[in-house]
Each structure stands twice: as structure tokens, then as C-alpha cells.
UniProtKB/TrEMBL annotation, chain A:
Keywords: Cell outer membrane, Membrane, Signal. It is found in: Cell outer membrane. This is RagB/SusD family nutrient uptake outer membrane protein. Residues 350-495 form the RagB/SusD domain. It comes from the Bacteria. Its main location: membrane. Belongs to the SusD family. Residues 33-226 form the SusD-like N-terminal domain.
UniProtKB/TrEMBL annotation, chain B:
This is TonB-dependent receptor. GO terms for molecular function: siderophore uptake transmembrane transporter activity. Residues 1-22 form the signal peptide. Keywords: Cell outer membrane, Membrane, Receptor, Signal, Transmembrane, Transmembrane beta strand, Transport. NCBIfam families: OMP_RagA_SusC (TIGR04056), SusC_RagA_signa (TIGR04057). It comes from the Bacteria. Residues 478-489 have a biased composition (Low complexity). It is a multi-pass membrane protein. It is found in: Cell outer membrane. One of its GO terms (biological process) is siderophore transmembrane transport.
């Protein structure tokens, strides 16, 4: 009997092994279950922060920046690099571009996160919830706008025929998301405008310039309408921002250190992608490609704090230097030796090492930067460009250009003066945009959407120092990432 | 149930100096031919005439064996040998003495006229009789139906390393070990019978002393058993899709306490193979052909950065152990100190290992074992990028100033691209890690009734880890942040309890064993990391002035496995064997719909040589056929929560300093175990008692692979884990051991080889490739590791431009081959070349003559292709004038003038034609054969030792990685064979060691 008893004990203990604690499930400490992520107002606010965080990612900020800025005549690549950014700079696009893949996937991830918040909030919800819905709509619009700028032809070129990007809106089924096709360019722009208009009506809180608010949506509308050549609307929304009273141009005294302070108190910035002190991206920062130096802003040799491989182009520097007092030269920190600008001798002809500091030195941290996406100066210049295109409003256009020139400490322009130099008002506006908004991702779009070529006649990598890129060139836009085409055969590749 | 004690003791045999294949023993009777004068003692009441017999019992090596039982057959009279192996027994002339001792063959000797009988006992272990630990039981090798390889501790430890994986290389067929780095702080990768998984782990399951996971140090390893097919892996089947490596640590044996000291010391040097960098004169001469910016000042220096970065490293390994015990208590205690300096400066590993294994017989019914192990390691890493700099820094740049202080490369003229002088950095910066691994096992066996045993095996394991790196404010790396440091710690614990009920019985010729197991494993891990700045020079401690660089990170994870299994083992008359097992296992990693997996395994074998009709086939000592089939699983290599739909709340989800939550993982509640089906047939044959051959053929097909299915970005996710995909591995392997000479001069050879072919059968819904466009896309119909890239077609003789193949199909589908110098027009094709070898193997030879022994061991890898990625930097045809370049390997040449038929294009500064972009140009044959180890040993004569009360002493000289034959142009052809990439390789080291083994 005793033995039977013992056998029973052994068998039972075997079973207990399996059954106690059997089939427990565990949750991670650094993530929450998606089913409980959007259940309260506080949750939705937290999830909205997450939407911002997804486009704060390096994959979006850095890779996207390369596409919007490197193919311009503002910068010169001073030496060869194995990074895919070289292809972007040189207009030698490849279908397997890592930066294109980064940007595409991070943008759609953030849009997807925005959609979940948008789906969760009724249009008649409480004021704080409507604000959050508006912010997510703004983000969705902004991301679609940047996607369509990078991967599709300018709106000014057959927008009803040319393919834009897939529109990822709320309420799609899983199957639809797997096989989403590209919409035409005009459809994407119409979607962006509709989102921004709706966002502007939903948002009701004057949040800091790190977040979306009514005026942020207006500011982007001004730009989008300008790209769509809807000049009156562009002026209307620029004025709404200017007249909101929330923003002022920084004074000439403050201007040279525009990008060095904490962004929150900056009265000119409308929207920036906020990076806090603990989000220093070091050698992976945008500024690392542009600048190498110490925390006081003194330029040092390459690789001290950054790669320092991409410089302000000699073309831009020389043009600014026509007025040596131009404050915008302060955003360029030439690396000098015995008072002479050093040349990078890794390519021939050598590129002068004009370090750019617009993306460095925020709050005294060399590689820290909160890239500014919308600022008041652009509103004046949007208005100026729109006015320049409206017959009879040339002087209004120059008035706004002159506001910017005055702030930069250089002489104002007059219609008479332009006439003698043989420049049109639009020429003057575009040149001012080039000077004022340099390195901020505008130049290539400003030229191509106005059907103007981009001319590089200065030292930089590539086989030619005299490169002319025509607005109709197929290479002005990026290929849809090949891995996305492979995963979704509805995506038609760019030619 | 005598198998277990056999196991416990069988191992110790190895300690006492035997290579595991005892074969010859001097005949006892030959030794004792002298007939002594009888010493008869007659007493008044003596009816039976007794003779006093004395003698010594020794083993094969001539060492006395204490505790041997000597009994008079068919009586109750018996004695034991003393500590010197001596015995005295009184017995009748004509009676029979039985000498028996566990682990040895019993001997019977009839008493004639002798008074002194010395006996040499022969060990039990012949190949087929070897007792193996296979999962939850021990079996004789002859009884196993599965495919199993065994490596004994002695054979394992010829090479000097603190990593088991490194020691296993080439030792067992089908076990492919590859090492990406020669650093003593990095481990190796093991793949058994080909990679069968795409996104989940391909690592074999490690089982230590009967339980999954656990700690061990190579010095304490008694045997390694490698389970390769389904029948063998049986009870681990649910996690055994990649094979199982069973580590058994040493135990004591009853008798006199044995104390051993093993010491080896020596040095190591980096192997540079066929690789040579240019010096100043060579580089200047080369660059003058294409680089207009070249200035003669560059000739002022000729720095050999490679020589500065590498050194002769010291290697030390010292072990002391004591073992012994009585019939009731057995113990093994050891301590090991290991220190290896890397061949790269400022890189070393220090390890301290302590182990205590105790087993106590509590009563006739209870046996208790306690195993304790603690391993403390300290790693120092090179904190300066010296490895990279050694390859690419320009000889034009000086390392030292005139006063011999290192040059600060940030200032002044510097020609190299990265402006990096590691000699300057290394004055200040450090990078290090330390870890403490502790495990404790408590095992209790309880014999409930004669045929039924209950066992409970329980283990707790803790790991503490801390890593620190420091960049001083005076160094280039630390200046930007005014001195920076990062520190991270982690803690993990694992608890496992495995409870087993075993029944075994014999019914006539039928032998049956049934096993039931219930097991739970619970794991917990936590980590904390910080990255700070603003530190005073030379101080890496955090203080009030310390500021943070990035936000601190912290988190923890928990997982659980639990399983039941049953196994029945049957054999009839030691001729027919069958085994069947069934496992059901739960894992918290899988989705709520299918968290459990069910697996079964079947095996059968037939020992033909035990058949009556075979008895007369004299040349064949033994012959056995094996077959198995079953399903095995895999749960590793995916995240702990791979099935859940998640919003991340880590710092990556925060914005503007506010905490956020962002979608991070798509849910798949259907996610379940990866399964593969494996079939194996095998043959074991021994001829003339001297030639042993095992051949296995297998077919392993993994379906429902754990696969990270990439999703279009418009879903909001990169992808989702699903059970899709199908990969097949087929192969043949053999292991041949021959005893070429067995007399005074002994020569034994072991040769093993394995051939594996891999093919991807399915990836997922309609797709053909896992990673489209990648250089190893994992494509249907191809080897998983096949290379995909443009095909290099050499250099255009007319102008020195690079050429690639361009394959164009016309409307009829006919393919035309042309050549293009436009890289973007080059066709990307499957090259038919894979990073997986066609075959691998090892060849060892052991020679023994008198007191001398010599062993040689070669391993080889054939038919794999390595992408020599770093040639992009140092074989760049002028693209980079600011990186040093390699000297042309033999047979290479550069284009100089029209008509030249060459391997290298005309150098062009800053070339934009992608000559050194991805193509078969840098895809090199990775085959090699290497003399992995040579050891020459000498046993000091016993006559010298007895006075010093030393039982045995051996001195040896040993060399690792002495010679390598390869066509590979880099420093070393050995790479991690899955990625097949050689990039800024830390070359493996060539070692020379002197050693001493002393046994008291």
C-alpha cells in the first residue's frame, strides 16, 4: 500500500509541475497592449505623442532631410562617401536607396499611428480630444506632403496624370493597406488640403512650436497652395499666420543665433521637430555632415564632432558674400587655417570647407538640432512669391522680400533697381528664398516647380562641376523603394 | 539501473589518462608466470587449506586502483584494495578470485600455486559499449537508434580556448563551427546539419547535466554528446530543431582522492595569411599614378599601423581539481584561471571558474546530487577603433611626435580619412565588461520500487553583467561631450524544475523502459543603461556635475516554458531496438490561439552482429543499422512577446520630453512553434576490432518556420511574425576511426566529414524571396545562403574600365550575354555560390610510443564563398586616396595601358563607376584546411615520480592554428558562415603553449 501511495505522489508531483503556473502569459515592461492603448483621453494624448515620436525618428528626419536638401545648389559634397546620401547629392538615384526606404517606411508608420487616433475620436468629441484629432490630421497631411514632394513629380507638371503616393487614410481594411496603390498627384494634394483645413477647424489650443496648432496648419496650407500655384489662397493663409499675432521675425541681433537656443521660446518658429537635450544624435545628426567643432561653435578639423563632409556651395557663399554684412553668412562657419579657408583636397577641384551650422549647437550641444519645418520668414516669402506671380502686385512682393533683407542687414530692392539689373520680381523672390531658407529643404522644389533648372557650377563630387538639372529630368524624384514595390505589386515604380 | 553509476565513474576514467578507447591490457596471467613457494600454514583445526594471496590491481596506465572488490567466487569472502591498489586475501587453492570495479571489466583468476597475483583491469569502454548521456537518460551507445556524436573532454581540450564552441570545431561530423572574430572575448557560431530556420535561431540547444541551459566551463567537461536526428533529440524535440549539445561535467569516483593540476602558458600572434598592406613607398608610388593631390611631404613618415595595433598576447590557463569519495559520497571540486590577451592591443579576457559536484547516497532508495558552478569573467575591449585603423590608416601619418608622445590627430596635417590615431585615444579611453554566472542544481533520485524511479532535477541560475565604456575629455571621442561614459547592467535568472518518473523492466528477452516527464522553466531578465557626459579627465565615475547624453533605459522581461513528455524504449534480446516519444510544450512567447506545440519522434535499430547467423562473420566485430523519423521544434530567436499587438512606451515613443505610446508590433495570436520533420538512416560498423565507421544520411525539412513576414509600409509595420516558409537540408556525414597500430607504438586516426545541401522550398504567399535585392535574398529554389549580385567580368583591356555581365532576354525569352561598364546596367543574378560550405570536416591523428605522445588535428571547410567586404576600402582602385591599400595578392595586376589583360581596373581618383561596389569581384573562395592543433606530450617516468609522491606527470608543447592553406586574399578565411562576410576581420590567433599536467 505504501508503494502505491508513493507512486501516486510521484505522478501527482509530475502533473503539478505542468499545471501550476502552466500557460502563463507575460507582457513587456516597455510596451503596452494595443487593445488598451486608446481607451481614455489621457491614453489618446499619449498615443498622439507617439505619432510625433515616429516622425522624430532618425529614419524620417535624417533620411528625409537628405532628399529635400542635398540635391540643391546650396551644398557641395566635399569628398566621396559610400553612404547612399551620395546618390541623392549626385542625382544618381537607385531603386534600393536605404534613405528612401527609411523615409517611406517611417512616414507611413507615423501616418498609420495618426489614423488610429483619428479613428478613435469623434468629430464632436470634447475640445481637448478635437485638438488631438486635429494634430493627428495635421501630421498625416504633412507626411503625405513630404512623401509626394520626394517621390512624385511637382504639382506643376500634369498633376492629374502623374502618380503621387498611396493615400493612407483612416478606416481602411487590412487587405486594402496591403495593396494600396499610388493616387495621382492632384488627388494627394487635395487630400492634404482637406486634412489641413479640417485640422485647422478642430485645433483650438495654442500649443508650443513643437506641436501642431491652428496656425501651424495654416502655415502649411500657405506652402501647399503655393506649390499648387493657388496664389490667392497661399497669400490668404500666410496672412492668417502673420496676423495671428503669435509669431514675430527675430531681430537682427537675435537672428544669427536663431538655431542655437531652445526652440520653445523662439517667436519665429511655427513648427519644428523638437529634439530635447537627450536626443543628441551625435555623428548621425544632420549637423554632423555639415560641421565639426566644439560646443562654442568654433570650427575644428573633420571628425572632431562630426564628419564635416558637406559644405555650403561656393556658389551660395559667393552670392551671399556680395553683401559681406549679410547676417545669413553667420550660418556658415568656414574652417580656416591662418585666416585662409581650408580646402578639402580629397576631390579635384578642391571644395572650400564652408561648414554649415544651422543644424548644430542647440542649447550648447554640438550635434543637437530641432529641424525647423515652418517659420515666419517663409510666410513672408510665400506671400512674396504668390504676389510676384499676380500681375500688379509686384511691389507687395518686394515689400515682403525687403522685410527679410532688412532683417538680414542688407540693402532693400526696388522695382527700378531690378529693372536695371534685368531681373524679374520672381527672380528676386526666388533668390531671397535661396538666401533666407538655405539648407532648409526648399531650394530644389522652388526651382523645379517654377520650371527652372538647377545649376551647379562649383566644386563638389561627381564627374562634372558644371551640372545642369532640368525640371523635367526623371532624376529629380526618388524611386519608390524597391522593397516596397516587392511587397505590394500595386505600387508602380517611377520611370 | 547500473547504467548511472557506470556513467558517473566511466568519466573519471578519462581523468586518469586514457583517451577513451582502451583496447589492450597486458594479460594478467602472462605477468604472473612465476610460481612462488607455497607458504602453507597448517593449523590444528584447519580442514580447508587457505593460501594468502597478495597483489596490486592497476589500470591500463599502470596506476593502482583503490576500492576494487576482490571476492572468492561462490562465497561471501571479499576484500577491497587499499589506496595503493594492494590487497590481501586468504583463499583456497583452486578457488576463483573475482576482481570487479565499476567501469572496468571483471576478471576471474583461478588460484593455482600463486601467492602474489597482480591484476591489470581493463576498462569497459569500447566504442559500442560507451555509456552516453542522451537527454533524460543514459544509454549504451549500442542501444541508441538516433544519430549521436561524442567528444570526450580530452579530445575537446587539445586547442586552448575558454569557449566550448571554438573547441568543438572539426571534432564531430555535421557540427559546423565558425568564428567571426579572433578576439578572446567573442564566441563562435555552431550550426548542426545546416541552417533550417530563416528568422528564428539556428543555434543548437545546450543541455548541461541533464537540464536545458546552465553553466559550464570547458575545463570541467567530461563529455560532449551531440544529438543530431529526431530520435536522438527526442525529449528535447520541442526545442531541438537545430540539434542538441549535451554537456556533462565531471564527477568523482569512489576510492582514493585524486588531485590534478593542469597548467599551460604561452603566447599568441595574429595570423595575417595572404594579406599585406602597403608601406609609404608602395602607396606613394601607387597613388602617383592617379592622385594629383599627392604631395612629397607624405614620404616623411612610414607608419606601420598594423604593427602598432597588434602584439604578441600571453595565454594562461591553470586548473586545480580534486575528486574522489566513497561508495556513498562522491565529489569533484575544481578551480580554473584563464587569461588570454588578444593579439589586438588593449583586448583581453580573464575568467575564473569554480565548480563543486557532490553526490550522496542518502539511503538504498535515495540519491542526492548537488552541482554548483560559478564563473566570473572580465573582458577588456579595445576602446579606440584600432582594428579598423590598422587596416585603413595611412602610413603617411605619424603615430608619434618627436618626443614619442602620441600625435593628437585632430590637429594639424592628417592625410587619413578618419583623422584617428588610436595610440592617442588608448592613453585615456577604456571599454570593459564583467559578468558573474552562478548556477546551482539539486537533483534527487528516489527508487520507489525495484523497477520504478522518481527523479527531480532542479536548477537556479543567475547572471549579472555590467559593461562600461569611457571616453576621456582629452581624447578625440570624448572631447565633444567634455568626457563621456556609458554603463549598462543586466540581471537574469532562470529557474527550472524537471520531474521524471522512470519504469524499466525485463521480461525474458524483452527489455522495456518508460519515462514520463513534467518540466517548467521560468526566466526573468532586467537591464538598466545610462549614457552620460561632462566628466573630469581620467574619471569615469558619475557625479553631481554629470549630465546625460541620452535618456536612461530600463526594462524587464519574463518568459515561461512548460512541457510534458513521454517516452518508451524497447529492445528485444539486444538485437532489435525501438524508441518512441511524444512531447507537448507550452511557451509564453507564442500567441493565445496556439501557445503549445506537439512533437513526436520514432527510432529503431537493429544490431545485426548480435544475430546468431552473424556470429561467424569474424571480420565484422559489430554491425548496426539505425533509422529515425520525427518532428522537432524551435522557439528561439524571436522576441519574448512576438505574438502580441503592442504600443511601445520606450524613449523612442516620446516626443518633446513627454512620454508617448506608438504602435510597435502587429499582433498575430496564431503564432506558434516552428516545426521541422527529420528523417535519418545510419550504419555503424566495426571491422577487425580496429576500424569503426559510422555513416548517416538525413533529410530535414522545416515547415511553418518562424518567419518575419515583411509588410508594406502602408500597414504601419515593418512586418509580422508568421509560421510560413519551408527549408530543406539534406546531407551525408561519416565518422571513421582506425587503430592503425596498437602495440608499443600506437597510432589512431579519426576522420570525419559532412556534406550538407540546403534549399529553400517556400517563403510565403506567392513571394519568391525573403529579402528582395539583398545579397543573400533567401530565395525559393536556392540555397538559403546563396549570393545574389552582379557578375564581375574583369577589366576592359581597351580602357581599363570595369566590366560586368549584362544578361538581356529578347522577346522569345532567349538570353543574350553582353558586358557593360555601367554598373546600373549590370544584371543581378544568383551566382550559384553560397556562404555555406559544400563540406566540412576534421582529421586527427594520435601517436603514442612509450612515454611520448603526439597528436595532430586538421579541420577543413570547402566550397563556401566569402564576401570580402573590406576590399571596398583597401582595394578601391583609387576611389579612396585617404585609406591605405592592400598589396596586390599573387596573380593580381592593374591595368596600365591598352591591351592589358588584368584583374584590376585603371585606378581613377574618386571614381564614380562603382568598380568596387557589390559584385562577384570581392566574392572569394573561402575554402581552407588548417592545422588546428599539434600537441607533443611526454609522460615523466614513474621512477622519477614515486619519490615525489606524484602518480603521474606529463609535459607538453601545443600549437594552435599553426598552418592554413587557402586562396582567400584576406588575413583569414574563417568567417561566420551564415553571413559569409569578412569585414575588418580580427584575425584568429596562432598560439604556442607549454603545459604541465600533474596528478597526485
Amino acid at each position: 500500500m505504501k508503494i502505491k501511495y508513493l507512486i501516486a505522489v510521484a505522478v501527482v508531483s509530475l502533473l503539478i509541475t505542468g499545471n501550476t503556473a502552466c500557460k502563463k502569459t507575460f507582457n513587456p515592461s516597455t510596451a503596452i497592449d494595443e487593445n488598451s492603448a486608446l481607451t481614455s483621453e489621457a491614453d489618446i494624448e499619449t498615443a498622439t505623442i507617439g505619432t510625433y515620436a515616429l516622425f522624430k525618428a532618425e529614419a524620417y528626419v535624417r533620411s528625409g532631410y537628405f532628399f529635400t536638401e542635398y540635391p540643391t545648389d546650396e551644398v557641395a559634397q566635399g569628398q566621396n562617401s559610400s553612404d547612399d546620401l551620395s546618390n541623392i547629392y549626385k542625382y544618381t538615384p537607385i531603386k534600393t536607396s536605404s534613405h528612401a526606404a527609411n523615409f517611406w517606411s517611417s512616414a507611413y508608420k507615423s501616418i498609420s499611428a495618426a489614423n488610429r487616433v483619428i479613428e478613435a475620436i469623434d468629430d464632436n468629441a470634447s475640445l481637448p480630444l478635437r485638438q488631438l484629432k486635429g494634430e493627428n490630421l495635421y501630421i498625416r497631411a504633412m507626411l503625405h506632403f513630404n512623401l509626394v514632394r520626394i517621390f512624385a513629380r511637382p504639382y506643376s507638371q500634369n498633376p492629374t496624370v502623374n502618380l503621387g503616393v498611396p493615400i493612407l487614410k483612416e478606416g481602411l481594411t487590412d487587405d486594402e493597406k496591403l495593396t494600396l496603390a499610388r493616387s495621382n498627384v492632384n488627388t494627394v494634394y487635395d487630400f492634404i488640403v482637406a486634412d489641413l483645413l479640417k485640422a485647422s477647424t478642430l485645433m483650438n489650443q495654442p500649443k508650443s512650436n513643437s506641436f501642431a496648432s491652428k496656425e501651424v496648419a495654416y502655415a502649411l496650407l500657405s506652402r501647399v497652395y503655393l506649390y499648387m500655384e493657388k496664389n490667392a489662397e497661399s497669400i490668404e493663409y500666410a496672412d492668417k499666420v502673420i496676423n495671428s499675432g503669435r509669431y514675430n521675425l527675430l531681430s537682427s541681433g537675435e537672428y544669427p543665433t536663431y538655431f542655437r537656443g531652445a526652440p520653445d521660446g523662439n517667436k519665429e518658429t511655427i513648427f519644428c521637430i523638437r529634439h530635447i537635450k537627450t536626443e543628441d544624435r551625435g555623428f548621425s545628426a544632420i549637423g554632423s555632415m555639415y560641421f565639426s567643432g566644439d560646443a562654442s561653435g568654433n570650427a575644428l578639423n573633420q571628425a572632431a564632432s562630426g564628419w564635416g563632409e558637406i559644405y555650403a556651395s561656393k556658389k551660395l557663399y559667393d552670392a551671399l558674400n556680395v553683401n559681406p554684412q549679410d547676417l545669413r553668412l553667420k550660418f556658415i562657419s568656414p574652417l580656416t587655417e591662418n585666416g585662409v579657408v581650408k580646402l578639402n583636397n580629397k576631390i579635384t577641384p578642391n571644395a572650400p570647407m564652408y561648414y554649415i551650422n544651422k543644424y548644430s549647437l542647440q542649447e550648447g550641444i554640438v550635434n543637437l538640432s530641432s529641424p525647423v519645418y515652418l517659420r515666419l520668414a517663409e510666410m513672408y516669402l510665400n506671400k512674396a512669391e504668390a504676389n510676384a506671380k499676380i500681375s500688379g502686385k509686384e511691389q507687395l512682393a518686394l515689400d515682403d522680400v525687403n522685410k527679410i533683407r532688412t532683417r538680414a542687414g542688407i540693402p532693400i530692392l526696388t522695382l527700378a533697381g531690378l529693372a536695371t539689373s534685368g531681373k524679374s520680381v520672381l527672380d528676386a523672390v526666388l533668390e531671397e528664398r535661396w538666401f533666407e531658407l538655405s539648407f532648409e529643404g526648399h531650394r530644389a522644389y522652388d526651382l523645379f516647380r517654377n520650371n527652372r533648372p538647377l545649376i551647379r557650377n562649383y566644386p563638389g563630387t561627381g564627374t562634372s562641376t558644371n551640372q545642369i538639372v532640368q525640371p523635367g529630368d526623371s532624376k529629380i524624384i526618388a524611386f519608390i523603394p524597391q522593397n516596397e514595390v516587392d511587397k505590394n505589386n500595386k505600387l508602380i515604380q517611377n520611370p | 539501473m547500473k547504467i548511472k553509476p557506470l556513467l558517473l565513474l566511466g568519466g573519471v576514467v578519462v581523468l586518469s589518462f586514457n583517451n577513451g578507447y582502451a583496447f589492450t591490457t597486458k594479460s594478467t596471467t602472462e605477468n604472473l608466470n612465476v610460481i612462488s613457494v607455497l607458504n602453507e600454514k597448517l593449523t590444528e583445526d584447519n580442514i580447508v587449506q587457505l593460501t594468502r594471496i597478495t597483489g596490486t590491481v592497476k589500470d591500463k596506465a599502470g596506476l593502482p586502483i583503490p576500492g576494487v572488490s576482490i571476492s572468492v567466487k561462490n562465497t561471501k569472502v571479499g576484500v577491497l584494495t587499499d589506496n595503493n591498489g594492494k590487497y590481501i586475501i586468504d583463499a583456497e587453492v583452486g578457488s576463483i578470485l573475482v576482481f570487479s570495479f565499476t567501469g572496468f571489466k571483471s576478471q576471474e583468476i583461478r588460484i593455482e600455486n600463486d601467492t602474489s597475483i597482480d591484476v591489470n583491469l581493463e576498462e569497459m569502454s569500447t566504442e559500442l559499449g560507451t555509456v552516453l548521456v542522451v537527454g533524460y537518460s543514459t544509454k549504451k551507445q549500442s542501444e541508441i537508434s538516433g544519430s549521436v556524436s561524442v567528444v570526450t573532454g580530452e579530445k575537446l581540450r587539445d586547442v586552448t580556448s575558454n569557449e566550448l564552441s571554438s573547441l568543438l570545431q572539426g571534432k564531430a561530423p555535421g557540427v559546423v563551427v565558425s568564428t567571426a572574430s579572433g578576439s578572446p572575448t567573442s564566441g563562435s557560431n555552431i550550426i548542426i546539419r545546416g541552417a533550417g530556420s530563416i528568422n528564428a535561431s539556428t543555434d543548437p540547444l545546450i543541455v548541461v547535466d541533464g537540464n536545458i541551459g546552465g553553466n559550464y566551463n570547458p575545463t570541467d567537461v567530461e563529455t560532449i554528446t551531440i544529438l543530431k536526428d529526431a530520435a536522438a533529440t527526442g525529449l528535447y524535440g520541442s526545442r531541438a530543431a537545430n540539434g542538441v549539445i549535451i554537456v556533462t561535467t565531471k564527477t568523482g569516483k569512489a576510492g582514493v582522492t585524486k588531485v590534478d593540476f593542469n597548467s599551460s602558458m604561452g603566447y599568441s600572434e595574429a595570423s595575417t595569411g595572404n594579406f599585406k598592406l602597403m608601406n609609404t613607398a608602395q602607396l606613394y608610388d601607387y597613388q602617383s599614378k592617379f592622385y594629383t593631390g599627392l604631395t612629397p611631404e607624405r614620404l616623411n613618415n612610414d607608419t606601420d599601423w598594423w604593427n602598432l595595433a597588434f602584439r604578441t598576447g600571453m595565454v594562461n590557463s591553470h586548473t586545480a581539481s580534486a575528486s574522489g569519495g566513497s561508495e556513498n559520497t562522491k565529489f569533484y571540486v575544481s578551480g580554473n584561471y584563464y587569461k588570454e590577451e588578444g593579439t589586438l592591443i588593449n583586448n583581453d579576457k580573464t575568467g575564473y571558474n569554480f565548480r563543486t559536484n557532490i553526490s550522496q547516497k542518502l539511503s538504498e532508495k535515495f540519491n542526492l546530487s548537488v552541482l554548483l558552478n560559478g564563473i566570473f569573467t572580465k573582458d577588456n575591449y579595445n576602446a579606440s577603433g584600432a582594428l579598423y585603423d590598422a587596416y585603413v590608416n595611412l602610413p603617411f601619418d605619424p603615430a608619434f611626435n618627436g618626443d614619442l608622445t602620441p600625435v593628437d590627430s585632430r590637429y594639424g596635417t592628417w592625410y587619413g580619412r578618419d583623422r584617428d590615431n588610436f595610440m592617442h585615444t588608448l592613453q585615456y579611453n577604456t571599454s570593459k565588461a564583467k559578468s558573474l554566472n552562478v548556477s546551482a542544481d539539486i537533483n534527487l533520485d528516489y527508487k520507489i520500487i525495484k523497477n520504478l524511479t522518481f527523479s527531480t532535477y532542479n536548477r537556479g541560475k543567475l547572471v549579472n553583467y555590467r559593461s562600461d565604456s569611457f571616453s576621456d575629455k582629452r581624447s578625440k571621442d570624448g572631447a565633444t561631450n567634455n568626457g563621456s561614459a556609458s554603463a549598462s547592467t543586466s540581471y537574469t535568472n532562470t529557474f527550472l524544475t524537471s520531474n521524471r518518473l522512470r519504469y524499466s523492466n525485463t521480461f525474458g528477452k524483452h527489455n522495456l523502459a518508460v519515462l514520463a516527464v513534467g518540466e517548467i522553466e521560468y526566466g526573468y531578465a532586467e537591464s538598466l543603461g545610462a549614457n552620460v557626459k561632462n566628466l573630469p579627465a581620467g574619471r569615469d565615475a558619475f557625479s553631481t556635475a554629470t549630465d546625460i547624453v541620452t535618456n536612461p533605459t530600463s526594462g524587464n522581461d519574463t518568459y515561461q516554458f512548460s512541457k510534458y513528455l513521454g517516452q518508451a524504449d524497447y529492445n528485444y534480446d539486444n538485437r532489435y531496438f525501438a524508441v518512441a516519444s511524444y512531447v507537448t510544450e507550452y511557451s509564453s512567447r507564442f500567441g493565445s490561439n496556439n501557445p503549445s506545440g506537439n512533437f513526436y519522434q520514432l527510432g529503431a535499430s537493429w544490431i545485426i552482429s548480435n544475430e546468431a547467423f552473424f556470429k561467424n562473420v569474424k571480420p565484422v566485430t559489430s554491425l548496426k543499422l539505425r533509422a529515425s523519423y520525427g518532428t522537432t521544434g524551435n522557439a528561439y530567436g524571436i522576441g519574448y512577446y512576438a505574438a502580441l499587438g503592442l504600443y511601445s512606451i520606450s524613449s523612442g515613443a516620446s516626443y518633446a520630453g513627454l512620454p508617448g505610446a506608438a504602435p510597435s508590433q502587429k499582433a498575430n495570436p496564431d503564432l506558434t512553434w516552428e516545426k521541422s520533420k527529420a528523417a535519418n538512416i545510419g550504419l555503424d560498423i566495426t571491422l577487425f576490432k580496429r576500424i569503426e565507421l559510422s555513416i548517416d544520411a538525413y533529410h530535414k525539412q522545416a515547415a511553418s518556420l518562424l518567419f518575419f513576414r515583411p509588410l508594406p509600409a502602408t500597414t504601419g509595420y515593418n512586418g509580422v511574425y508568421e509560421n510560413v516558409g519551408n527549408v530543406r537540408n539534406r546531407g551525408v556525414e561519416f565518422n571513421l576511426t582506425t587503430k592503425n597500430f596498437v602495440k608499443a607504438f600506437k597510432w589512431e586516426t579519426n576522420f570525419n566529414m559532412a556534406f550538407n545541401r540546403n534549399k529553400v522550398l517556400e517563403v510565403n504567399q506567392g513571394r519568391n524571396e525573403v529579402s528582395n535585392g539583398a545579397r543573400q535574398p533567401i530565395a525559393v529554389g536556392h540555397d538559403m545562403d546563396e549570393w545574389f549580385m552582379p557578375v564581375w567580368s574583369g577589366v576592359n583591356p581597351d580602357n581599363g574600365a570595369p566590366l560586368w555581365e549584362n544578361r538581356v532576354k529578347d522577346a522569345d525569352g532567349k538570353e543574350f550575354l553582353s558586358y557593360t561598364s555601367n554598373y546600373n546596367a549590370a544584371s543581378r543574378v544568383y551566382t550559384g555560390k553560397s556562404s555555406a560550405p559544400k563540406f566540412t570536416g576534421g582529421l586527427s591523428n594520435n601517436f603514442e610510443y612509450k612515454n611520448f605522445s603526439l597528436s595532430t588535428f586538421f579541420n577543413f571547410v570547402y566550397g563556401n564563398y566569402v564576401y570580402n567586404e573590406s576590399r571596398f576600402l583597401f582595394d578601391s582602385d583609387g576611389l579612396y586616396e585617404s585609406y591605405n591599400q592592400m598589396q596586390l595578392a599573387s596573380g593580381w595586376n592593374r591595368w596600365e595601358k591598352p591591351g592589358d589583360l588584368v584583374t584590376h581596373p585603371k585606378p581613377v581618383h574618386g571614381r564614380a563607376d562603382n568598380a568596387n561596389a557589390l559584385s562577384t569581384r570581392f566574392l572569394e573562395d573561402g575554402s581552407y584546411i588548417r592545422l588546428r592543433n599539434v600537441t607533443l606530450g611526454y609522460n615523466l617516468p614513474t621512477s622519477w615520480l614515486t619519490k615525489a609522491k606524484i602518480n603521474k606527470a606529463r609535459i607538453f608543447i601545443s600549437g594552435d592554428n599553426i598552418w592554413t592553406l587557402t586562396k582567400f586574399s584576406g588575413t583569414d578565411p574563417e568567417v561566420e558562415l551564415r553571413t559569409g562576410e569578412s569585414y575588418i576581420k580580427y584575425p584568429i590567433s596562432r598560439k604556442l603553449l607549454f603545459g604541465l599536467n600533474v596528478s597526485l
